[in-house]
Design brief:
This protein has helices at residues 2-7, 9-12, 14-30, 36-39, 54-65, 90-97, 111-140, 143-166, 173-199, 205-236, 242-275; strands spanning 41-48, 70-75, 79-84, 101-109. By secondary structure, it is of the alpha+beta class. The chain folds into two domains: 9-35 and 113-275, Multidrug efflux transporter AcrB transmembrane domain (Multidrug efflux transporter AcrB transmembrane fold, Up-down Bundle); 41-109, Alpha-Beta Plaits (2-Layer Sandwich), CATH 3.30.70. It has a four-stranded antiparallel beta sheet with strand order 2-3-1-4. A hairpin with a 3-residue loop joins strand 2 and strand 3 (79-84). Helix 7 (111-140) packs parallel to helix 9 and helix 9 runs antiparallel to helix 10.
């Protein structure tokens, strides 16, 4: 029964659709955590004079600054990154540290700047999809093949954001950059598939699809392997580089989703369309 299911390309289309729906539910009910630059607040990188536990430092700063939200996001013993969900005055923060550490960098982001950053993200995503859609329609000039490429890219983005919600990866300028990169990866793989199936005439539809799948999966799995190495390296060797680990995690989730959306959903829809 399993073999029969895997050979039925129409049934395989359901898999990415279900995962996309689950991701939408996860986003709707669990939400996505926003980074400091999007929700406002302060972030400081410290070099401690002596090893301090995260809980002790958080407790000290909450008391000294009289705030409730302090989060030590990275602590290697000496190098510490602290986030605070309030716009803190730099002088007040230095007084709170009181010689316990050297402040390497300090950045406070107010609500106006965070709102402007969110607006820029909305525009960036909108223009990315708009220009991608125009390019696809000009290239193929057929509605169904063009819309499947756009649908596949949208599916990848939704599943990636759902993964961010599930694994508490914050939405930040960096992770949005990863989402925009994901659109490029998705369109690349789908244009490869669509070109091979629609424009080439040698072989059957199934043979052309298998040929494009070999090339596309090689590209995608290579990218996933590279991002996995980057993620492991930043987690264990450079834990303070949380931005890089977040970018790698978003791309791993999104590229894994792209395998399903391209080679299960898009391939199935294109075969259905051509045979019809």
């Amino acid at each position: 029964m399993l073999k029969k299911f895997l050979e039925s390309y129409k049934l395989l289309i359901i898999i990415p659709v279900i995962i996309t729906i689950l991701s939408l539910c996860l986003i709707a009910f669990n939400g996505v955590e926003e980074g400091i630059e999007l929700k406002g607040g302060s972030i400081a990188i410290l070099k401690m004079n002596e090893t301090t536990s995260s809980s002790a430092l958080e407790s000290h700063l909450k008391t000294a600054l009289k705030i409730n939200e302090v989060d030590v996001v990275s602590n290697t013993g000496k190098d510490v990154t602290v986030q605070m969900e309030s716009e803190i005055n730099p002088d007040a923060f230095n007084s709170a540290i009181n010689g316990k550490a050297e402040v390497i960098s300090f950045n406070a982001i107010g609500p106006l700047l965070s709102e402007e950053a969110m607006n820029q993200i909305y525009w960036a995503m909108l223009f990315a999809f708009l220009f991608m859609s125009i390019t696809v329609f000009i290239t193929f000039r057929e509605f169904i093949p063009s819309i499947t490429i756009i649908l596949s890219a949208l599916t990848d983005i939704i599943i990636a954001i759902g993964g961010m919600s599930l694994f508490n990866i914050p939405l930040s300028i960096a992770s949005v950059g990863a989402l925009l990169m994901l659109i490029g990866y998705s369109v690349d793989a789908n244009i490869l598939l669509t070109t091979r199936i629609l424009k080439r005439k040698e072989g059957t539809i199934v043979e052309r699809a298998k040929e494009s799948m070999k090339t596309g999966l090689t590209m995608t799995t290579t990218a996933i392997a590279a991002m996995t190495i980057l993620y492991i390296s930043t987690i264990f060797l450079i834990p303070e580089a949380s931005t890089l680990s977040n970018i790698a995690a978003v791309l791993i989730i999104g590229l894994s989703a792209d395998i399903m959306s391209t080679w299960l959903m898009n391939r199935g829809i294109l075969r259905w369309y051509v045979e019809g």
